[in-house]
# Entry
Amino acid sequence: MKTRIGVVVGSAIILIWCLLPIAWIISLSFKSQDAVTNGSPGFLPEEGGSAGWQNYKDVFDNPDFQQSIINSIGICLIATVLSVILATLAAYAIARLEFRGKKLVLTIALAIAMFPVVSLVGPLFDMWRTFGLFDTWIGLIIPYMSFTLPLSIWTLSAFFREIPWEMEQAAQVDGATSWQAFRRVIVPLAAPGVFTAAILTFFFAWNDFVFGISLTSTSNARPIPAALSFFVGSDPFNPPASLMAAGAVVATVPVIIIVLLFQRKIVAGLTSGAVKG
Amino acid sequence: MSTATMTKGASNPPPEGSDRTRAENRLGRKLVAPAVIVMLVVTAYPMLQALYLSLFRYQLTTPDDKAFVGLTNYWTALTDSLFWRDTWNTVLIMVVTVGIELVIGFVFAMVMHRVIFARGVIRTSILIPYGIVTVVSGFTWQFAFSYNNGFLNTWLPFVADDYNWFGGHWSSLFAICISEIWKTTPFMSLLLLAGLAQVPEDMLEAAKVDGATWWQRLWKVILPNMRAAIMVAVLFRALDAYRIFDNIFVMTKGQNNTESASFLTYRQVIEQFQLGAGSALSVLLFLSVLLIAYLLVKLFRVDLAQARQES
# Structure
């Protein structure tokens, strides 16, 4: 009985912990500019201080913000697809084949996952300017790939190791060609793992800030997180808090939708990649 | 079909030197090559470049002034109080946030492990802070702590309504730590939850039958069995916390001496175009991360390869 009360209280605390700040930023995004400028402390918009959807309209009407949404979606999707393809090949080899240098590959991936991102900013800044990749999509896609690869390689090799590869041979014994056996048996078993790796990779790329602000200078390639931090309205001493809150909510919505749709897979991916190996 | 083929790549590798081994070797390398090349091109090469640049006096605004200066940049950094202040800030943030996250994360993991009702809802919600962009969580907390627009001052009983959290060093650091802890505790607790699931139930039952108290079971059965999971969680979070940048950039822009080591490096390179001095800081940052990783692995005395089975 005592444990049950503990669990109920604990669950309530977890829910408040996770959701209260979200509720707050949503509430702020509905406060009117005037109310915020004059100072409106408190959780919910005061009477008459609510702006309805105006902040969201303003955010979507802002050309820089529009462009940054397109940039973020485009850059993150391309980086995710490329990184997952390369990681799938590598993880297949790691889980399935015996070859020399396998440990080295995993060590390199581990080392890169721990790398302080800022360390690369200087040299990349210099290199990208020389190659003309500064402030372009490719200039962000390449660094994103290298940083999401270790994560995908681990997640995927953990998944692939659990696949009963003998089934492929069993299918061949039953008369399937090796390609058929691979496609009919292994691909369906591997697909959920690949998908999970893709979601995590996308999160990772979407969350990036350091590369986003250092390797871009205009809205050409600037992703949402970087755009938000440069989002200062007409009066630099009074940053438009409610407008930024609306922008923050817009940047968060895709993530929340993905979380809601695929929570089981994400948990499995996170923990299998990090704990099971 | 022999058993050797069935467990290909697992426990019975074919004898050395056979055609099969060589073919597998070749295929394996071909498959991992693209991933390894991409990873090295964007990390190893720039890192070597940083190592090289760090030996020069090199400012982008005056490129003609570039000159070889040996280890001067390192000496300047290591004797500068700014460098030590920022490093100290970073270490402080890392120790405080990871310590608190470990405790809260463990409690959350225990709750999630036992919860039956609304399990799905809780597991979904805990992913939300994890998924949220750090910049957004930084803004959220900055606005929450703000004295003219936030709600925290009115909710906290011992704080004056017009208290300015971003007016002083410690209160700013506090706000930054809260934001960091909020965002990353879920990650910690999910890893610990996975570790908790690996604690054998029958061992716990046996300890209970033998009359071990809850506290004894925690220290003697649960925690030792979770050592690998705790180790991985702490290591990952500590290295991640040491890179702290987004939160500070958004919440204080480094004011009130809240700058982190990453922030200092960023400012040198991107804002002041000091590629030489900035590169030296990049190298120092990288070395400190290596040192922390080494110390943690030693401290926990866990073989990483064993914890991760293969790596």
